[in-house]
Amino acid sequence: MADKPVVNDKARFTRRALILGGLQVGAFGALGARLYQMQILDADRYATLSDENRINTRLVSPPRGQIYDRFGYLVASNRDNLKIVVVPEDADDLEALLERVSAIAPIDPKDRNLVLRRALRQRAFVPVTVREDLSWGQFARLNVEGPDLPGVRPEAGYSRQYHFGKELAHVVGYVGPVSEWEGSDNPLLLIPGHEIGKSGIEKVRDKELRGTPGVRHVEVNAGGRVIRELDRNPAASGTDMVLTIDTQLQKFALERLEGEDAAAVVMDVHTGEVLAMASVPGFDANQFVGGMSSGNWRGLIRDPRKPLMNRTVQGRYPPGSTFKMVVALAALESGMIKPEEGFRCTGRYFLGRSSFRCWRRSGHGFMNMHSAIQMSCDYYFYEVANRIGIDRIAEMANKLGLAASYEEEFMNAKPGLIPTPAWKRATLGEVWFPGETVIAAIGQGYVLSTPLQLAVYASRIANGGYAVTPKLVRSLGDQLMLSKEVEKLDISDASLAIVKEAMNAVVNGGGTAARSHFDLDGVMMAGKTGTSQVHGLTAALQAKIRKNGGVTPRKYVDHALFVAFAPVEEPRYAIAVVVEHGGGGSRAAAPVAKDIMMKVLELDVAAKQAFELDAPLGRTAEDVSTQDG
Amino acid sequence: MGRGFGKTDTLTLRDKLLRVNWVLALLTVAIAAIGSVMLYSVAGGRLEPWAATHMSRFGVGFCLLLAIALIDVRFWLKLAFPAYVIVLVLLALVPFVGVKAMGAQRWLEFGGFQVQPSEFMKVALVMALAAFYQWTDPAKVSRPLYLLAPLALVAMPVALVLKQPDLGTAALLGAGGMAVIFLAGAHWLYFGLGIAGTAGAIPFLWQHLRDYQKQRIMTFLEPERDPMGAGYHIIQSKIAVGSGGVSGKGLTEGTQSQLNFLPEKHTDFIFTTLAEELGFIGAAGLLALYLAVIALGIYVAIRCRHRFGRLLAGGVTFMLFLYVFINVAMVTGLVPVVGVPLPLVSYGGTAMMTLMAGIGFLLNVSVHRSMDAGDGARTSSGFPGGMTFRR
Questions:
Q1: Considering A102, A289, A575, B94, which has the largest number of Cβ atoms within 10 A of its Cβ?
Q2: Which regions of A221-328 does DSSP assign to beta strands (E)?
Q3: Which residue among A223, A243, A263 closes a domain?
Q4: What is the tens place of the pLDDT at every residue in B356-388?
């Protein structure tokens, strides 16, 4: 150690070790700064991200509002339904996954293919229902094995149940899975397996019936397995609803129409409550719940009798002679025609170079307003219409409710068609011919009405000119939906009295519906028949048919119509009946109306205390089965 | 005072025990204890499957550490090259008889025990380099010829480890080896050139990387590019660290860790769990403990009178630093994800033994600090230099 080293190795090492040490301290400083930045400066942001990671918000399906008929019979309710849904996006191999699910809860091969096809068709994050109505055992096993089945979600939900699925299919409609175009804006609609109103009042009042979803916060791990529930905000069930319909009457009407392609609407003339609206043939709404097999669906849409169509609001028919009260009231209100003023019916009415037949070829002879309605003389109304003009007729038809659609209460309801020269110019681009006024006077030509419009029309005449509108919902929750004040139409009582008296004569005074007369302790019905020609039945075709033996093919047979109200003195009920291809109104429609009206009067629906939701439940679901028509 | 290994140079056991740097030993115990607590936490508050094993391994490791510390440094000097050669051979054997795990072949099996020769190499390389310089004239260390030998010592294991492929360990070995050469006194210029050369070689190296390694580097550069795929681990780890805040979510309460959002939470990502559950205070505290170990390591190195001890202590300390830095920088998203455990905290037997051996050598240098390298270093006749002991 005595010699001086050439290189002071120890000093050099110390120097370099301190440099390297400084580097290490600096590096640790950088790590500390990084931790400071992440854990102190940006801690909030990371904390949020961490919560987003672990907390999964799940919506809880609310039970849908229940639907009752006017006397408290349960019409639509919910039952618990344990189901499996699959989110295709989360599944690696959907087919293999279904195979594994099938080992726990067997899946029909047909359903399996349906699920696969659906998964392909819609966007990957939209859940597909795989199976419903699982047993508790299956449901529990799927819950346990959930983490090993990515994409599979067992869901405890509800399923809609229709207690009058056949009787009220058109009225109440049905619910079904959310279609893609309906979703996204409302988180409720993204709940797997959640069903919304697709038709009928279920669709029209869907918002009220839906309810508010509950929220469940669950802690999940990276695999998506639920570790525990953090909190739960219960779902608020949808609003319960009472319909104006009396299911008993509805049942009766349907049975009476059975076998025909027909429709009948019964209304309370003062409140506009629809007591029955029957459309035949029909279907069972329960078939639609949870999705229908494509075979059944094809069967329904291809059926030439169109069971899915609600004829009461979607069937548009030429009103035929039931339209004559419109012309009569328009004429009386115009002051251009005196009620006693008469014309001689010769069976053929000439206008310019055209001629128009009265349905009675031999003619009715001398006819005034009363007898023309009573006997349904076409000649008289040709002449009156020609004098007062189409615009006055159209105005009166509008007043009496024949043009409106009432679609705010009735699903897919069609407006009536009341032609005017302006309408023809606008839609067809043609001028109006005087002959078309004449045809319109007897409810032919362009004029089209639905049975519902005809019932409103009869009601407005019967109630003395008040503008009632048809109602299907009597109350929503504790809110009564019937309008308190009904506007009085600008039609004089005198004119209405004349028309009503004539309608009385149609049934009770030897008129066209004399065969449908009844007398229940002095309570009688007034009405008007209608027989409307089917489009396509030309004069040439008629001649050909006559030559070939006179049997008209069914599709060319006239529609039979009848509108009526009762009791004659103090009207309370109105009815409209249409029997497609039924032949004459007096023969095919009036007897049906008579039977239904007699039933209404017997039940005296409007006089009975209706069910109120806030009152103690009058009847329960158990009673439903004991009810008979 | 004389050269060579005379009998008079031996220390009594009592002397040795007094010269052990007990603060360093205690720091080791403290860090391993923190590791056990964290392993207990990530197991959801259970000793099984990791914490108990970790503690018993540490017990065994501590015996190893003391044994290494107390055995005469001259024995280790003699063993340095043979040990290096043996580990190198084992490393070369890995591709032929090794066990494959997670796409890389790193393990050798010895009757039920699986060991990673690449781990042992970290200590063996430092020892071999230190021994080389012990026998080299300090004045000649910058001569090209004297530079080539240590470079070869570094390059051989690095090449073998890269082949496995294990990027993290290769970087650790490379950087650790360079640090020893730097401490030994090689000229500055070489390091300037080396850094420039490495930068130039990057495109060439890139071509030779495995797909998953490229993927990791790409993911590191832009983790949000593939949040559900390769970037997932980095993102989740950062969320965990950041959401820990100042004081953390509490032991066993770390949602990111306990709910399995983190990968490898008991090994490479244990620091993430610690940062999440114990917050900035815990994370910075653990870093402070490591820093204390490193500072003591440098202190031990500087105080040592012989070159072998200085370089051994300096090299081991730097290796330890690299472990900590790469691991923490990785889980906080500062460097790409490479498989480097956190010393004494991460679960893993081979790494534990390597680290305990490394710290054992630090203590050994502390115990044998007063041995004199003598003049052999500066006289050609005295080459290779011996050691003398001075009381």
A1: A575
A2: 226-233, 241-243, 262-268, 274-280
A3: A243
A4: 999 999 999 999 988 765 433 433 333 345 565
